[in-house]
From TrEMBL:
This is Kinesin-like protein. Residues 658-668 have a biased composition (Polar residues). Belongs to the TRAFAC class myosin-kinesin ATPase superfamily. Kinesin family. KIN-7 subfamily. GO terms for biological process: microtubule-based movement. Residues 386-427 form a coiled coil.
Amino acid sequence: MSGGPATPLTKMHRAFLSTPGGSKTCEENIRVTVRIRPLSRREQAMYDLIAWECLDRNTIINKSPNQEKATVPFIFDRVFDPSCSTQTVYEEGAKDVALSALKGINSTVFTYGQTSSGKTYTMHGITENAIKDIYEYIHENPDKEFVLKLSALEIYNEHVYDLLNVESGSLRLLDDPEKGTIVEKLVEQVIKGRQHLQQLISICEAQRQVGETALNDKSSRSHQIIRLTIQSSITEDSGRIKTFIASLNLVDLAGSERASQTNASGTRLKEGSHINRSLLTLMNVIRKLSVEKRGSHIPYRDSKLTRILQHSLGGNARTAMICTASPALSHIEQTKNTLSFATSAKEVTNRAQVNMVEPDTTLVKHLQKEVARLEAELRCPDLSTSSHLRALIKEKDVKIEEMEKEMKELKRQRDLAQTQLESERKLRKEVKGLNQDGPSDHVVRRLAFEMDPSSSSVRSTPANSKLRSTIARKTVLRQSVTSTDPSLVVSEIRKLDERQRQLEEEASRVLEILHKEIASHKIGDQEAAENIVKLLSEIKNMKVVGSFQEVVTADKANLLEEISRLNCQGNDILSLERKLEHVQETIDKLVSAFQMTVEDPLEYRSSKKKKGLPFNLSNSPNVQNIIRGPCSPLSSSRKAMDHETENMDPKDRISISYKDSPSRSNRTPILKQSKSINVKKMERMFKTAAEENIGSIKAYVTELKERVAKLQYQKQLLVCQVLELEKNQSPVEVDMADQSPMTWPVLFEDQRKQIIMLWHLCHVPIIHRTQFYLLFQGDPSDQIYMEVELRRLTWLEQHFAELGNASPALLGDDPAGSVSSSIKALREERDYLAKRVCSKLTPEEREWLYEKWEIPPGGKQRRLQLVSKLWTDPLNMQNVQESAEVVAKLVGFCESGEQVRKEMFQLNFVSPNDRKPWMMGWNMISNLLHRELMLMTKKRKGTMTIHISVTGTKSGPETGLAGEGLGRNHRSSESRTRGRIIPLKFD
Ligand SMILES: Nc1ncnc2c1ncn2[C@@H]1O[C@H](COP(=O)(O)OP(=O)(O)OP(=O)(O)O)[C@@H](O)[C@H]1O
């Protein structure tokens, strides 16, 4: 093979061209040098001959004795004979190019040649020298700031591997429109210093695939590319920072080889074929670049090597190629090939340019202009001239309008679906109503409780279809939140939330753009600043949030309406409770008066005189009220009494009239007289009438209490549901209307287990657990209680889970709602119960229990040990049952022999007459529900005012919704708010 033509001298000159942006493009040929190594020991041993002679610094010629043709010299940028050191090779063959990276120009140094020709040997020296020079340069330029990063890869068998992260496996090549081919996930390490860099390079060299061949004990079996990225910044006198960034690629190629020479087989043969193939592609690329016209297709993509090195081959880089060769005659053909390749390479022209990151002056000018324009606009008092901002606002307005339209459409669809659903329900109810006599089960199960007693009679007329449809309509109205499919409402709320998010994002984007613009412009003018504030507020006041809130308010109107309705009920409750209190007082007084009268009329009179009792049976206006009460059959008793009085002997009548006598002095003789007349008969009459009256009054009171309790439950159930919907959590799916009687026992057991577990998790007072457990044993009418209990416990459990023990911070000054305070309250409750063990249990009972609950005899605090074991195993129903029995005994439930009515079970689980300090714990927990609702409604920021009724008795709040004061420290506020209507303003 003949040598190539000499490189024209003109091509050796580099031309720096100015780019439009001001940076320079360096158009130059690849710098190609040839290094001939000394004969290796192996070659010497074989008495190999030297076949090449370096005629001068640039020329090498084949001096083989048996040449048939005249040899043509090869001319390169530099030819290094075997005596040249690596230092010289670096200085004259690579340094200039390598150090270009320090000035923002990409550079690449290749070593190319036959296997064992000295590529790795040379590249190792080049790398060391380059590192040394780079750090010297950094040292000599303290005014510049440098950031060095290193990445390293090898291409082995056409796979790319990260030499700094061997675990990564084969990496993919990606095409980046700006950067060209990049290696995905290639690690790039920031260099901390020269030693660190050297250490990393050593690691790369150690990681590289090396194998023994016949020609080289440590033959590199892969192409290695070490990339050092250098970022340098300099601050000019003007304060402008110029930043340059460039990469230095140090490429040590695997050597071309002949299988016959390397004796390769198996793995080595395969490696060799991959190496040769990729080198062939490299040669093709170089050849095409050297001969083809600019713009013609260059097959970079034929190998990973050429893809990765694309910039270095005819692109934005300065490239130096050091071709290494053996002088041995035995490798003459290989060397000729190398020199031929090198000859092509020197024809390749690159266009390197300085890579400056510094903000372009044009951009700066543009920004300055923009600042000036905006400042001028802001100075103008008429905002209408702020065309940019106006356009922005207009654009947003259009978007908002579109979104509002979308929302309206969504709302319309939702309403349509709801109407369909409701009419379907209505229809179902009517059909059901026709098939039933008496009160509708459906209605009862729906928790709809008629306040108006007359409506019961309406319902009890099944034949009247008109009335039935009225009831159905009422029930549908009542259902609202309680019976509207929660998933439908939740889905609507989610949709609206999504809309809200989108709108808020839009608004934020507008504000962000404005902020950025304004922040980037230095506004020294007060007027301009004011205008900006004005504009910002105008943007903020865009109808985004407002319009959304209106929509949301409207969409959640059913929830709010429901709350309002409940609060109206709350007012009813309040008035009912007042009446109730009043009636209760009357009863108490009547009972005591009656008992005293019957037991000893004389004593009664004297005590009445002493205590100054303000009324008696006949003249009490309260009695009149009671008698006139809708449920009181007292009138009949009274009539009976009157009737008996009328039929009395006139003498007997005197005995009745003594009470009315204004003259107290006359009483004794009259009384004596009356007694002598028919005392027994009168006593009997009086007793019967009084007993009848009291019974009736009690029945009336009980009825009132039932109404109040049921309304309260209904109210709390709604609160729970609202909270669930608010939290977008799937509600406890218990649609009682659809519960068939057959499934209720199963459902009850399931709910009870959940409740027991939740009691345990929420550290609910054990007296409450006992009361609830014993009262609600699975009767179908227990459904509402089970439902409410489960819902609020579920909420509490979630609340505690969210709160954790660090709740005080979240609760502000009120640590009462924390888990720890509940645990403390539970402990105090156990102490209280332990104290009752002796008084409530006989010694025999105690011993029996100690034995049963395995309390060791003679142990200390056996009572406390016993109580500590109660309600501790929520999964063990026997433990639950027995715990309830013991606690019931200790507390004295049903001691009076009177069955506690379920309806009387208070929502805050505290017997009003028996509040203990530890009971406040559960009060507080229960009241969290109420507070959550408050917070939720406050957050809603609607425009309506909702009144939450806060009611209570003298000893504390009576309902789960009542009471603002949550802790002992808040007692004063509790008493302040008790019994008042607290308006919650939505603004
Ligand atoms: N200029 C030189 N002076 C002295 N020894 C050299 C020179 N160049 C190479 N050698 C030696 O020759 C041997 C082969 O060199 P090297 O491994 O660098 O070859 P290579 O081209 O990288 O081979 P391969 O392609 O198989 O990896 C090594 O033992 C090395 O020390």
